């Protein structure tokens, strides 16, 4: 489901998740610290190249997953783009409302674009990890890094119940649709409300049954899993440095051009 389906198909699937995590976090931190839209755009492009070249995934997969966060980023940046200006202020585009101008000027457009591309670069860095590392491998890696065990287990359980909720909601919606539950706006809203309440109740009962099953199998407060047989992936460490160097080179080039 989602990114995990592609992570199991990636050529980096059997590579140690630690170097993949370090590469992603290095690109993420440098992208955010530079505060540059050009660096963010370069980061997103570099991560797309790595996902395609190293992971062997089609470029359309990466672009497909970028569409969802791009919609949220566009809405968020639009709220930063529009400002109120006194009448007569030179702006790029505006509408007169109540004696003032509501629109944006060049500075607001540049700030919104920089924020959009910085966030896009951060999303791209995390997609490199998500599209090449299954969640189970990632949680094992976090355990090796001595992340609190409670936090890791909560991540595992939450991840498991994403599938539980999805399966339950899908079954309920299929049953409702077979009874014409989504014919018309009024009936659709009623069916949606009913589904939301039933999903919560059934997921709660199923969680209780799963916990009882864990206890019957000797669950004592921690989930024990066997580590995978991974390739070292040492080549990703210098690659992380190369990506960071490229990001800094873009930053210096941008500042040199603007300067």
Task: Please describe what this structure looks like.
There is one protein chain. This protein has 259 residues and is mostly helical. It has two domains: 1-146 and 231-259, no CATH class; 148-225, no CATH class. It contains nine helices and three strands. The protein has helices spanning 3-7, 17-34, 37-53, 59-81, 106-130, 135-144, 149-178, 185-216, 236-258, and strands spanning 83-86, 93-97, 100-104. Strands 1-3-2 form a three-stranded antiparallel β-sheet. A hairpin with a 2-residue loop joins β2 and β3. The radius of gyration is 24 Å and the shape is flat. The relative contact order is 0.17.
Helix content: over 70%
> Mind telling me the C-alpha Rg?
24 Å
Number of domains: 2
Biggest sheet features: 3 strands, antiparallel
**Total of helices:** 9
Q: Average pLDDT across residues?
A: 85
Stretches where pLDDT is under 50 for at least 5 consecutive residues are none
Strand order of the largest sheet: 1-3-2
Oligomeric status: single chain
Distance between the amino and carboxyl termini = 47 Å
Describe the secondary-structure layout.
Layout (H helix, E strand, L loop, with lengths): L2 H5 L9 H18 L2 H17 L5 H23 L1 E4 L6 E5 L2 E5 L1 H25 L4 H10 L4 H30 L6 H32 L19 H23 L1
Antiparallel strand pairs: 1-3, 2-3
Key features?
259 residues, mainly alpha, 71% helix, three-stranded antiparallel sheet, 3 strands
Concise account of the structure shown:
The protein has 9 helices and 3 strands, in the order ααααβββααααα. By secondary structure, it is mainly alpha-helical. The chain is flat.
